[in-house]
């Protein structure tokens, strides 16, 4: 991956401190990278340890390690969610932006859906970080 230079004229999020859940991949990781590119400091939060480390390393290599950090957390566990918020506040001396992006997907016809999977899906959606 190429190292990219920071363009101060694009820094629309300079001074902002963000926490993004579900940031190890997909839309969350893309959002985290865009936020860093726009000058924000970002804590990426996800329960997937390996993908999260990869995402943070990739963003750090492109936009600067000082802007980005990782916190492994399952946001359906209140103590882990609270730890993530506390870590962001500690790292960045506060928090301005919260992106409640984490989600799980189970694709199946409703008649064939597993109730446990539905519960797991709604658990992520109904217990966002606050
Ligand atoms: N992809 C789409 O087409 C689409 C369309 C509409 C809305 N969305 C919404 O956008 C968001 C992101 O979608 P995506 O496609 O990037 O999803 P994705 O499945 O690629 O990524 C979701 C991330 O959330 C993480 N995650 C799941 N449960 C977690 C938990 N309990 N704690 C911490 N992390 C957890 C996963 O590990 C994963 O890294 C979701 O809220 C989704 O509902 C997506």
Summarize the structure.
The protein is of the alpha/beta class and 130 residues long.
Q: Between the first and last Cα atoms, what is the distance in angstroms?
A: 34 Å
Summarize the main sheet: 4 strands, parallel
Strand content: 5-15%
Helical percent range? Answer: 40-55%
Order of helices and strands: EHEHEHEH
Stated plainly, the CATH topology is called Rossmann fold
Which architecture per CATH? 3-Layer(aba) Sandwich
CATH level 4 superfamily: NAD(P)-binding Rossmann-like Domain
> What is the number of strand segments?
4
SS summary, helix count = 4
Poorly predicted parts: none
In the residues, how many domains can be counted? 1
Structural category: alpha/beta
- Which strand order spans the largest sheet, edge to edge or round the barrel? 3-2-1-4
CATH class descriptor name:
Alpha Beta
Task: State the shape.
Answer: elongated
Q: Classify the oligomer.
A: single chain
Named once each, the bound ligands are: nicotinamide-adenine-dinucleotide
| Average pLDDT | 90
Report what the structure shows.
The chain is of the alpha/beta class and 130 residues long. The protein has one domain (12-126): Rossmann fold. The chain has 4 helices and 4 strands; from the N terminus they run βαβαβαβα. It has helices spanning 26-37, 49-63, 78-92, 115-126, and strands at 17-21, 41-46, 68-72, 97-99. The protein has a 4-stranded parallel beta sheet, sandwiched between helices. The protein is elongated. The chain starts with 16 loop residues before the first strand and ends with a helix. The mean pLDDT is 90. The protein binds nicotinamide-adenine-dinucleotide. The site of nicotinamide-adenine-dinucleotide has 20 residues, from helix 1.
